[in-house]
Amino acid sequence: MYVILVYDVNVARVAKVLKIARKYLHWVQNSVLEGELTEATFRKLKHELGQVIDVKEDSVLFYVLGNQRYTTRELLGVKKGGEEWIW
Amino acid sequence: MYVILVYDVNVARVAKVLKIARKYLHWVQNSVLEGELTEATFRKLKHELGQVIDVKEDSVLFYVLGNQRYTTRELLGVKKGGEEWIW
Fold first, then answer.
1. Nearest-CA residue of chain A relative to B76?
2. Tell me: the pLDDT tens digits for A35-66?
3. In chain A, how many domains are there?
4. Closest Cα to residue B35, out of B72, B2, B65?
5. How far apart are CA B78 and CA A59, in angstroms?
6. Residue A14 forms part of a structural domain
7. A36 beta partners
């Protein structure tokens, strides 16, 4: 499954969230990471993030694309992520 | 088509980008908006945003879901957007 992660967390926790998320996904732009995950790695990612965020204040949103074929991505402006997007 | 917009723009331009984006989409969390658009309104949104961002510095990413059926959304933490998500 292809996962798009978008986070909106307290600045004090951004570094921790980013460090965890980058183990599994590649950085696309501020507060956005993407990548192909198995069910197991997706569970691990959610578990690890759950340990560091404040669930009453922070928000981490996952869009899980069952089938990438139906999703296209368009960019306006500069491409920030270093990694090539694997579409 | 269902569109997820994620912006990473200079703080000086966030208010303008948000004002435009909110005309077409509903706010989900910081730097993320979503909503159902026609081709025409999607073109208008991109055109208007193109007038206010600095394409050499800012980045606005659109994920266009041709078919929402293949996409699920999961939230970790607090739900920030006010509008109910129309899935």
1. A60
2. 999 999 999 999 999 999 999 999 999 999 87
3. 1
4. B2
5. 5
6. yes
7. A2
Q: How many CB pairs under 8 A join A and B?
A: 132
Domain span holding position B24: 2-59
Q: Is residue B35 part of a domain?
A: yes
Residue A67 lies in a domain: no
Residue to test with chain A: of B71, B73, B80, B85, most A Cβ within 10 A: B71
Asked if the Cβ–Cβ distance from A77 to B57 is below 8 Å, we say yes
* Cα dihedral A57, B12, B27, A79 in deg (nearest 10): -100
pLDDT band at residue B85 under the 50/70/90 scheme: low
CATH number at residue A26: 3.30.70.240
pLDDT digits (tens, 9 = 90+) for B16-72: 999 999 999 999 999 999 999 999 999 999 999 999 999 999 999 999 987 777 788
- Decide if B69 is inside a domain: no
